[in-house]
């Protein structure tokens, strides 16, 4: 089938899906959970095929681990589905209601975005998470997973399609893409697809952002900073820096550049060096850093680099303002942390740093939808429009304005024979 | 000055502007109002120059009228500024607060988007409205008005710059662009500018959307529909259709295609024809329409046309479902109306029509920020992301996540030694 036909199918399904009630969509979610349970053996067999092929293709150990979809992982995603059913129905929520005039009431009501295209890494559990988030929020979805997970994603899509069709969810709401050509074609379908969410390497996301006529939600870079102010607690600073750098080195919310106030550098750097080197972290420092500890040389190029590796760039700064300037110049607007004891300084830092997440005295690694309590995460956005930072179900919602009248015409307000009242209504939308 | 330098100036000012409090920004607004009052004579003189030049260039009467900026219009915009100062401070509002764990609290707090580029039509009052909305919401702004208003916009910008600088607003927050080359250069400054808002003709907006690497908020087309169900009140239908088509024919929320249920067409069309022709409206009809009344022929091309003129395309449909299909196929997702007495039918229509505004028994022309009670309007968006429909101050806001900790590291939650609580907080953000 041609991609424009598949886009139209997704769009047509999205119109019907937007009209389903929360109970029906929850029934669809439970049907998926039961379908995964009933088809676990076949899913594991398909995943074994993917694993074998990937082993012969010499896929690295970390990627093989992410590709694995065994009974434990299936149970985890099923648990995730049950908790998703417990969240409130996000659709049909009245966000604003205004009494414009007698018999003329305005309601701003949440609705799905429509059709979402998601291109994601080789984790089969991501397929289920994305699909169920889209169903909960009433969006059609076209998914393209990693090539390595071909067989697993194929059976997962079939199981989800069958389970949701039986539960009364409009067919065509979920479609599985298997080729790069389909992705390329999808990126031009702006008449049918409302939002593209790419997950994966920076270069990949940059490619998608540069080649899509559809709005893209996500982040290319994750150059996160910790700034250590001169009054920071040294022991706490070492712990937070080590956690931010090493707790999971390949994540977008990992610390990449450490900024240290030069007044505290002599006390902090020697103990920090020991702690980081115990974890296998290579330190690159500017001139000031290298006067205090031995380190490789950091240049301006390092301030622009997301290592995603056991490497940390360290720069000394004369003041918090210099740290803020550095972050707003070289950062990617993702997550930046200040370590300090002074509330006023912290408040200024949090206001002036132009990033999705600004933290005080804790690890950059908290920047995550699950840790924020969103239940599930679509991704992390460094755009300032629509959704910013870790994105949960809210990021998959739009709204529409519903105006309920009784024959009103604008001419009567234009010529002054009627006047707007514009009083807030307490009522939810109802007819 | 080069545009990238001007972009950087706007961006630097935006960081400082985001840190001003609501009182300071209101003081800036009041200073603008006083500045306009004090400089009224000079502004009118500059506007007279624009008017004279435009008359010699044979600018049409409607455009000359929009270009006029006299004492009355200056008073109107001053009144608008005073009402803007009465609106609550939109910044620093806590939208969500979650207690993640003991001593670890998350706040989602509104903040400005950053730097907005606005390209708008030849109405000098729009310059003031846009500038003051951006100041109220803490955004830097680069404005490019119509060439015809060159002298007026130049003095308005100077008055605003001087007034706000004296009131403590960071310099560089507002800049006036005067050439197309500057606009072209601005559209590529995605490192400094966060959002482009184009206002003007469809072709112009389409051009901007196709040529900007920065997100664009607005609408290209406004193909709005009224669907008359078979149980609609005939008199009310005629009034609403006439108002929707003729109250202001050049607006994006004007009715372009009328869909009539074929069961009511024989009763409605003859009286509607008289009412429309009294207003000078040319009717184009499909075959069914032309069996009942004389009309020009409407083809599929008409369903895709935004006339912005005294022309109305009319099509008969066998059912509400057919009307919904027509609207979702040919519409632009702007504003669509159902006229009916049946709540259940209306509810289905409002759910299935995928448009920013879906109205019941009232005119399409209510689709407007002022009429909706937003106080002021940035524009109307047909995107389903960020802001949809008439956009007020809310559309100029983003948010950031502020996390307040006491030394917490993620490893303790990953290894199970600590557990998240994820309890809702009632507290506003504070340190």
Tell me what you see in this structure.
Two copies of one chain form a homodimer. With 431 residues, the first copy, chain A, is α/β, with parallel strands linked by helices. Chain A has two domains: 205 residues, Aldehyde Dehydrogenase, Chain A, domain 1, CATH 3.40.605.10; 143 residues, 3-Layer(aba) Sandwich (Aldehyde Dehydrogenase, Chain A, domain 2), CATH 3.40.309.10. Helix content of chain A is 42%, strand content 21%. Chain A contains 16 helices and 17 strands. In chain A, strands 10-9-11-8-7-12-13 form a seven-stranded parallel sheet, with helices on both faces. A four-stranded antiparallel sheet of chain A has the order 16-2-1-17, with no helix packed on it. In chain A, strand 7, helix 10 and strand 8 form a beta-alpha-beta unit. In chain A, helix 3 runs antiparallel to helix 7. Chain A is globular. The model of chain A has no long low-confidence stretch (mean pLDDT 95). Strand 13 of chain A pairs parallel with strand 16 of chain B.
- CATH first level of the largest domain in chain A: Alpha Beta
Rg of chain A over CA atoms, rounded to whole Å, is 25 Å
CATH architecture of the largest domain in chain A: 3-Layer(aba) Sandwich
Number of helices of chain A: 16
CATH superfamily of the largest domain in chain A: Aldehyde Dehydrogenase, Chain A, domain 1
Oligomer: homodimer
């Amino acid at each position: 089938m041609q991609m424009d036909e598949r886009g139209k199918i997704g769009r047509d399904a999205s119109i019907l899906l937007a009209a389903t009630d929360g109970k029906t969509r929850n029934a669809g979610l439970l049907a998926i959970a039961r379908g995964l349970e009933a088809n676990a053996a076949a899913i594991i067999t398909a995943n074994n095929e993917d694993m074998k092929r990937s082993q012969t293709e010499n896929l690295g150990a970390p990627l093989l681990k992410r590709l694995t979809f065994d009974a434990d992982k299936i149970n985890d995603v099923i648990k995730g589905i049950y908790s998703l059913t417990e969240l409130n129905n996000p659709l049909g929520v009245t966000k604003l209601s205004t009494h414009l005039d007698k018999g003329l009431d305005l309601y701003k009501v949440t609705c799905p975005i429509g059709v979402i295209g998601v291109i994601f890494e080789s984790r089969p559990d991501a397929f289920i998470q994305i699909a169920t988030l889209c169903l909960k929020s009433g969006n059609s979805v076209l998914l393209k997973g990693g090539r390595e997970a071909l067989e697993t994603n194929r059976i997962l899509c079939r199981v989800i399609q069958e389970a949701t069709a039986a539960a009364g969810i409009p067919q065509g709401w979920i479609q599985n893409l298997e080729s790069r050509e389909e992705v390329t074609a999808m990126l031009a379908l702006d008449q049918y697809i409302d939002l593209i969410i790419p997950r994966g390497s920076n270069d990949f996301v940059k490619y998608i952002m540069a080649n899509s006529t559809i709005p893209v939600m996500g982040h290319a870079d994750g150059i996160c900073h910790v700034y250590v102010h001169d009054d920071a607690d040294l022991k706490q600073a070492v712990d937070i820096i080590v956690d931010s750098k090493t707790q999971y080195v390949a994540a977008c919310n990992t610390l990449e550049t450490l900024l240290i106030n030069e007044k505290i550098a002599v006390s902090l750097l020697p103990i920090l060096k020991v702690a980081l080197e115990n974890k296998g972290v290579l330190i690159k420092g500017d001139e000031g850093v290298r006067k205090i500890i031995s380190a490789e040389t950091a240049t301006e190029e390092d301030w622009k680099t997301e290592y995603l590796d056991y490497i940390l760039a360290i720069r000394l700064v004369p003041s918090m303002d210099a740290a803020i300037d550095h972050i707003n110049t070289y950062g990617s607007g993702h997550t930046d942390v200040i370590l300090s004891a002074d509330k006023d300084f912290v408040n200024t830092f949090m206001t002036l740093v132009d990033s999705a997440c600004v933290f005080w005295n804790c690890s950059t690694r908290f920047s995550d939808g699950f840790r924020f309590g969103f239940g599930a995460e679509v991704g992390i956005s460094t755009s300032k429009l629509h959704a910013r930072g870790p994105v949960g179900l809210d990021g998959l919602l739009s709204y529409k304005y519903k105006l309920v009248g009784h024959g009103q015409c604008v001419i009567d307000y234009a010529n002054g024979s009627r006047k707007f009242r514009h009083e807030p209504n307490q009522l939810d939308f109802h007819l």
